[in-house]
Design brief:
Number of domains: 3
Transmembrane segments: 38-58, 361-389, 455-477
Keywords: Membrane, Transmembrane, Transmembrane helix
Radius of gyration: 49 Å
Length: 678
């Protein structure tokens, strides 16, 4: 059965004549059959080769998904992470729409130790003297009041940082992948927290240094004490601990102690005493309050039960961390960000998502390619088949010379054959062109009809050639916009392209926001005094041991004047402090500036880039300078309005009147200065 079908198909193929015309005769039948067989075989082989090549060709396929859901976007992001593009409906999305933040402050900020009841219990209300302040329990209430104030300041700084963060926006021209979104959000969040940390630390440092440099007298007499110079005159004098004077702007830290019931001095673990209570508090730890034994020893007469701090709740800070360490982190033990990517995607709300991928054996591409090629291929093979059939018949029917005829193969004979074949081919082409008839029909053939069909064929060929020539000329002369894409161009290539095609060049950035630190740096050179001997440790140490009482003759002074050397140590320590504070302020500002993003979605030309970045640099310099000046101005206003006592005795004069009462008067000085060498 199978062999019969095979034989029938073979016989049908042998009898197939695709070139049969109304004018065909028995003489042309063999030529038509040969041309048909060549045409069919060539077409089949060509289609097989074309199909194989097309099937194995790597094809880039672009696809678009309209209004994709959140789940669809997740699937597309997993399958096509490198080519997925989903433009957002909103260019800027507020962080608070998809991020919630939780914070847990250090347990001391929610303990009984910062409650008013605790402060009042610790307050002794006894006379404070130089001797009494050596017992740390006398000043312990102020220690905890400072910690309570630091907790409140940390909480407010946190609230301000969160408010700034939630009011800011993430720039999202296209839907961002979840991991990228988390990194960007965490980076912006950490920048806001870091800004609050540095601002709080910088302002507190300015207050501490200004307080110490101005030699503000503490009412606890921990840095200065009042002494009688004569029967009526009173003067503030600095306290000295282990050869360290409280005129030292960095204080005189030492272990905190207290006297037990046997008048023995007991050192409190982790506690530090200093010239100013704020400095003492920042340098201390809370390790004693994690230990019930230490608490019982320190507060043996406490009327209430004291719950110690718990080691179990510590996750970030060790039990012996200093208060300064806690404050540097805003007293935050733990903070969590809940980033809801589904809420972000609902805000982004892309109208469509486009993506591309590569594949082989793409059926639609194979079918389209075959349909597009088969017509032209068929026409070419039909024309070639007739030529091949004629060549085959010519070689088959030529007269073979007898064996006894001598053949002379010379170069002249070869040239003659080539020339003869060329003439025959030319003649054959002219004859075929003259007899070409594409309008041949099966109606009764008459010489007049045949002549008309050939004329129509010639007219058709002329019109076809003219139209093709006109179209080709139009295409050649018409200027079309041409889009050229270059992958990862270098800076040199970009500048060359900008010089040649500045009006049409478009180079999208791979990152819409880039931190300033990746391409910009602002450096500062401080005044030479900040690196001079006037602020060196040797010079300050010399001034600290200078005794004006023995070195200065009061009789040499003009009435109403003071010798500058009496306050020289404070002056130059202040100068050194200003230099260090300025450097700290600059370092903090630079850290924030370097993490600030530069937002731009297109590569800028060098001139435009310079024009756009120079105002940013100028603004940063002005802002850094103004922030520091504003901080110093606020501290000055606070000290001036507070009218504090000064340890250098340059603000007030204190005397005992006839009624044994203390009189305080503003010190007055003439409006002139005079330098005298001694």
């Amino acid at each position: 059965m199978v062999f019969n079908i095979k034989d029938r198909l073979w016989q049908t193929f042998l009898r197939l004549d695709l070139f049969k015309k109304p004018s065909s005769t028995e003489q042309t039948l063999q030529k038509e059959l040969i041309a048909t067989r060549f045409y069919v075989c060539s077409l089949i082989i060509s289609l097989i080769i074309l199909t194989i090549i097309t099937a194995f060709t790597v094809r880039t396929i672009e696809s678009t998904e309209s209004r994709p859901s959140y789940k669809q976007f997740i699937q597309l992001a997993e399958q096509y992470p490198n080519t997925l593009n989903c433009p957002c409906s909103k260019y800027a999305i507020n962080y608070q729409t998809f991020i919630t933040t939780q914070v847990k402050f250090h347990q001391v900020c929610s303990s009984q130790f910062i409650e008013q009841k605790w402060f009042e219990m610790l307050f002794t209300n006894q006379n404070i003297s130089m001797q009494s302040t050596d017992d740390f329990r006398i000043t312990l209430t102020f220690f905890w009041q400072i910690i309570g104030g630091l907790c409140n300041s940390s909480r407010k700084s946190w609230e301000n940082a969160i408010a700034n963060f939630q009011s800011s926006h993430i720039l999202s021209p296209t839907a961002t992948l979840e991991e990228t979104l988390r990194i960007q959000s965490q980076t912006e969040f950490q920048n806001q927290i870091q800004l609050s940390q540095t601002t709080l630390a910088r302002n507190l440092l300015a207050i501490r240094r200004m307080t110490s440099g101005n030699e503000i007298v503490s009412g606890l007499q921990t840095n200065f004490y009042l002494k009688m110079l004569s029967r009526n005159d009173i003067q503030a004098s600095p306290r000295v601990f282990n050869n360290c004077s409280c005129t030292n702007i960095k204080g005189c830290p030492r272990p905190a102690t207290f006297s037990d019931e046997y008048d023995h001095f007991v050192t409190i673990p982790g506690m530090i005493m200093d010239c100013l209570m704020v400095d003492a508090t920042l340098a201390s730890t809370l390790e004693c309050y994690y230990n019930e034994t230490c608490i019982s020893l320190l507060h043996s007469s406490s009327p209430i039960h004291i719950r110690p701090l718990s080691n179990a709740t510590l996750t970030r800070f060790p039990w012996n961390a200093t208060i300064q360490t806690l404050l540097n982190e805003l007293m935050i033990e733990e903070m969590k960000n809940d980033i809801r990517f589904d809420l972000y995607y609902s805000q982004c709300a892309p109208q469509y998502c486009s993506y591309s991928y590569t594949r082989r054996f793409y059926l639609i591409f194979i079918i389209t390619m075959i349909i597009g090629v088969v017509r032209g291929l068929s026409f070419g093979l039909r024309f070639l088949a007739l030529i091949v059939a004629k060549v085959i018949l010519h070689r088959k029917n030529r007269i073979v010379p007898h064996a006894n005829v001598s053949q002379i193969d010379t170069s002249h004979q070869n040239l003659g054959r080539i020339w003869s074949s060329t003439r025959q081919m030319s003649k054959y082409s002219r004859e075929k062109l003259a007899s070409l008839n594409v309008f041949e029909d099966f109606v009764p053939r008459t010489p007049r009809r045949i002549s008309r069909e050939r004329v129509l064929t010639k007219l058709f060929m002329i019109v076809l050639l003219l139209s093709s020539f006109g179209i080709a000329l139009y295409v050649i002369l018409t200027e079309y916009p041409h889009l050229t894409t270059l992958q990862n161009p270098s800076l040199t290539l970009y500048e060359q392209l900008y010089e040649d095609y500045s009006d049409t060049l478009q180079c999208p950035c791979s990152h819409i926001s880039v931190p300033y630190k990746s391409f910009m740096n602002v450096s500062f050179i401080l005044h030479q005094v900040c690196s001079s001997d006037l602020v060196s440790s040797d010079w300050l140490s010399y001034l600290a041991v200078f005794d004006p009482a023995t070195a200065i003759s009061q009789s040499s002074l003009i009435d109403g004047t003071r010798d500058f050397r009496t306050m020289g140590v404070s002056y130059f320590q202040f100068l050194s402090t200003f230099c260090s504070m300025v450097q700290t302020n600059i370092d903090d500002a630079q850290r924030v500036f370097r993490n600030t993003p530069f937002v731009n979605d297109r590569v800028l030309s060098r001139s435009v880039f310079n024009t756009k970045t120079q105002p940013i640099i100028d603004s940063f310099i002005d802002t850094t300078r103004n922030n520091f000046i504003r901080t110093i101005d606020w501290v000055k206003i606070g000290f001036t309005a507070g009218r504090f006592f000064n340890g250098a005795n340059v603000i007030y004069e204190m005397k005992i009147n006839v009624n044994n009462q203390l009189d305080i008067a503003f010190a007055s000085y003439p409006q002139y200065s005079e330098f005298t060498a001694t």
